[in-house]
Specification:
This protein has 477 residues and is α/β, with parallel strands linked by helices. It has two domains: 266 residues, Type I PLP-dependent aspartate aminotransferase-like (Major domain) (Aspartate Aminotransferase, domain 2), CATH 3.40.640; 110 residues, Aspartate Aminotransferase, domain 1, CATH 3.90.1150. The chain is 45% helix and 12% strand. The longest helix has 22 residues.
Length: 477
């Protein structure tokens, strides 16, 4: 037993394995740029993949053989033709920071267990707060994903509603509700249900033909809900919806929330990072009016998953989210215990995620975020123009971000047939593995959906994809 433990923690073995693994990953990164050498993925059904890895042949793989075989079965997010989900190819320096975080394993609930990364986390939060347009009163923390961040922000909003400590006292049969567009990410609806609001506690705002919340619908929905006895405690705006990347009228929603004296939260999981882009940041005009904002760093800011920044306009309000004596905690912790993150977050233990973001800032400067976001949004415009030029393609909407939804069709086809055709096209593309794209449902129809996440993707890849779609589609008619 003791000899086995010595082997496990042998520094020389770790040194050799680490060097070998970095070499393997560096080669992988280099080869990813040679698109003719490797497909984005080699698709296998879940059952086949399980059966493959359940074989003795694969279970007996050790060391670099294991890692190489596992990597070969993964989707290559560093590939220029990987334009499916909203996951960025992580910056190598940030991936190295992940290794440091995993190895040091300092759980950051309390300061003693994560001293330097806790201080670094505050620096990261300050960078985000400044980009949003907040002043020095802002504060926040990093957490594991947009779902958790949205839930935390909405719990804060609920607990601060009309100075009632609902976390301590409960809702006592009050009809609490929040408002959000019908195109918002499902995690907002999930958060409402976790909070006990139920289905009726989510008041949906209708959207326009660009899938943005309509202000007239907001006014109507608010009046109808309050007439029915609901107490609206928060409005959620989307800075980049998941399906289409559309931006709600954030400035108008912020003014509305201020007028009604209710919490305004912006879900900027995908598109909130636009605050770092000098060219495109006007898409999020008014975001500084929000009481809270979330931004996923693993989407548009080159960090490994899963990592989300939650920023409050007034940082001290975060202490009331889970407090059982909010006034006492504010007096004691507003300045003195900013470093005990568990006071404010769901996670009593969390990894040293701050260094994943800070490593990019430290190594490449904040301008790297501007370059990354701007490049991907520029590519969205390039792809839009290419699709628009093709006779047998139609877009769901003109994109505001790097997400594009479109259909291939033939004249005379009804919507049902077009949806089925596009589902089959996507399935065939997935099985061939040369490209990775996904699909979404908009207004009851199936659209092909692409999210451009690799800054090295070019016009050539877009042309190749459209040619492939046309070829598959023409063979189906």
């Amino acid at each position: 037993m003791q000899e086995k433990l010595k082997e496990i923690y042998d520094p020389q073995k770790f040194r050799k394995d680490g060097h070998d693994l970095i070499d393997l990953l560096a080669d992988y990164l280099e080869n990813s740029k040679k698109i003719e050498n490797k497909e984005v993925l080699e698709f296998q059904s879940p059952d086949k993949m399980y059966q493959k890895w359940n074989q003795e042949k694969f279970q007996s793989l050790k060391g670099m053989e294991f890692y190489k075989a596992m990597i070969d079965d993964c989707t290559n997010v560093h590939h220029r033709q990987c334009i499916g989900h909203q996951i960025s190819p992580p910056a190598p320096t940030s991936a190295l920071a992940s290794l440091v975080s995993a190895f040091m394993n300092n759980g950051m609930g309390v300061y003693e267990m994560g001293s330097s990364p806790t201080a670094i986390e505050r620096l990261v939060v300050e960078v985000f707060a400044k980009a949003i347009g907040y002043d020095n009163a802002a504060g926040g923390f990093l957490t594991s994903g947009g779902t958790l961040a949205n839930l935390t922000a909405l719990l804060t909003a609920r607990n601060l509603y009309k100075e009632k400590n609902i976390w301590e006292e409960g809702s006592r049969n009050r009809k609490l509700a929040l408002m959000v567009s019908d195109q918002a990410h499902y995690c907002v609806d999930r958060a409402a249900r976790i909070m006990g609001l139920g289905k009726e506690g989510v008041i949906h705002i209708k959207t326009n033909d660009q899938f943005q919340a309509k202000m007239e619908s907001l006014e109507e929905a608010y009046k109808r809900a309050t007439d029915e006895g609901f107490e609206i405690f928060a409005i959620v705006g989307s800075a980049g919806t998941t399906s289409t990347g559309s931006y709600d009228p954030i400035e108008q929603m912020g003014s509305f929330a201020k007028e009604k004296n209710i919490w305004f939260h912006v879900d900027g999981a995908h598109g909130g990072a636009v605050v770092f882009s000098e060219k495109y940041k006007t898409l999020a005009n008014g975001i500084s009016l929000a009481d809270s904002v979330i931004i996923d760093c693993h989407k548009m800011l080159m960090a490994p998953a899963i990592l989300t920044t939650l920023i409050y306009k007034e940082g001290n309000k975060a202490y009331q989210t889970f407090s059982q004596d909010a006034k006492y905690l504010l007096q004691q912790h507003e300045e003195e215990q900013w470093y005990d993150i568990a006071l404010r977050s769901f996670e009593c233990t969390k990894e040293m995620m701050s260094i994943k973001v800070y490593s990019i800032i430290n190594e490449h400067g904040e301008g790297a975020f501007n370059d990354f976001v701007t490049r991907l949004y520029d590519l969205g415009d390039v792809f839009y123009e290419l699709i628009n030029e093709r006779k047998n393609f139609r877009l769901a909407t003109k994109p505001q971000a790097n997400i594009l939804c479109f259909q291939y069709y033939q004249e005379g086809m009804d919507d049902v047939r077009i949806s089925k055709m596009n589902e089959e096209i996507r399935k065939q593309i997935l099985q061939e593995g040369q490209f990775y794209i996904v699909k979404t449902q908009l207004n009851g129809q199936t659209y092909l959906r692409t999210t451009i996440m690799n800054p090295f993707t070019t016009k050539n890849e877009f042309v190749s994809l459209l040619n492939k779609i046309e070829k598959i589609g023409s063979q189906m008619t």
